[in-house]
Amino acid sequence: MSELLTVADAEQLIRQAMPVFGTERVALDAAAGRVLRQVVRAERDQPPFDRVMMDGIAIATSVGGRRRFRQSGLQLAGMTQQTLDDTDTCIEVTTGAMLPRGCDTVVPVEQTRRDGEHYLLAEGYAPAVGQFVHPRGSDCRSGDVLLDPGMRLRGPEIAVLAANGVTEVEVAAMPSVTVVATGDELAGVDQPLLEGQIRGSNDRALAAALRVRGFDDIQLARVADDLVATTATLAELLRTRQVLVLSGGVSVGQRDYVPEALRMLGVRQVLHRIAQRPGKPMWFGIGPQGQVVFALPGNPVSALVCAVRYLLPALQSATGLAAELPMQVCMESAVDTSPALTFFVPVRVHHDSTGRAMATPLPPGTSGDFSSLPRTHGFVELPPGLAFAPAGTMATFYRW
Prior knowledge:
Elements: H1 7-17, E1 23-27, E2 40-41, E3 51-52, E4 56-59, E5 68-75, E6 89-93, E7 105-108, E8 112-115, E9 118-121, E10 133-134, E11 145-147, H2 155-163, E12 168-172, E13 177-182, E14 186-187, E15 198-199, H3 202-211, E16 218-223, H4 227-240, E17 243-247, H5 258-264, E18 268-272, E19 276-277, E20 283-286, E21 292-296, H6 300-318, E22 327-331, E23 335-336, E24 342-351, E25 357-361, E26 378-382, E27 388-389, E28 394-399
Parallel strand pairs: 5-6, 13-16, 13-17, 14-15, 17-21, 19-24, 22-25
Antiparallel strand pairs: 1-12, 2-11, 3-10, 4-6, 4-7, 5-9, 8-9, 18-20, 20-21, 22-28, 23-27, 24-25, 24-26, 26-28
Helix pairs in contact: 1-6, 3-6, 4-5
């Protein structure tokens, strides 16, 4: 039996072996949530003209002390630029319009009073040069770098792309993923249960965890505990898909055929078995054409823990997606651990009166007990060394 890897060593081996999935160009309207893989520069100065920021009147402040202005024109948003020919007059303006030529300030409509064709400034109001004017190029200049590769395209980034005429965006390609459930005992969600059967849930849980983190090209597959069937199914998937996530069949039982099938198909084993609980039997390897294979334990808690701790961060890193940083929490009560294994314990997190993040351990009865997980927010990682972690222990928290 090979020596168990530490969690840190397993994480490093996975990170070093992961491929890069390349890039693709997508329409702007399909780019939300993707990771940018190009430099985006300003198409022109922004704003491209001196922009009016308030409804009101535009005047020239060179007419010192003048309080009464005849309206000589109108400048609406979207109109070509008007000109103030007479400094004794004003031009009525709206928010977003170009500042008329010859004007250097905007007086908000609230600071004026209409008297026929004239505008009177409010008593005591003194206009200043440049007020309520968004100067041309004050946000950015033509050619300035606005977005860098690696940025997640959210609302603000999409706005920048649209405002600068980017209709197609180069983004990180998202890999095709198939989640494979193994086991003779598994029945479909909509199938009647026979004696000895359970409904498959790991594949749905793993697919959901992937989807909520931005991976949407996901398929589900199922294979029985049979070497020939397992090998044939995996061979086809390796031919057509970039990432395989298996659940079950990865331990050392007499019907655990996944490692042998992968070896026969030329998938290079990077690691197998980690000094952790749950999830010790986890397997990871790289296929002949760079396919990625995560073979997770079949127990539901083990599968989800391994997915959150290894699978999801690895795929997020390979595609440029920023993974949620784990945070430090304080254990609210003692919990059993192990001198030899890293322990992952489901917890519920809240903040105390000082704002400190506190974790209440809710360990499942076994690694197959997933019914209690909805009452938790994630799990903490407790390093080996002691038989238990006392209340007050600081631990790293990972969200489901």
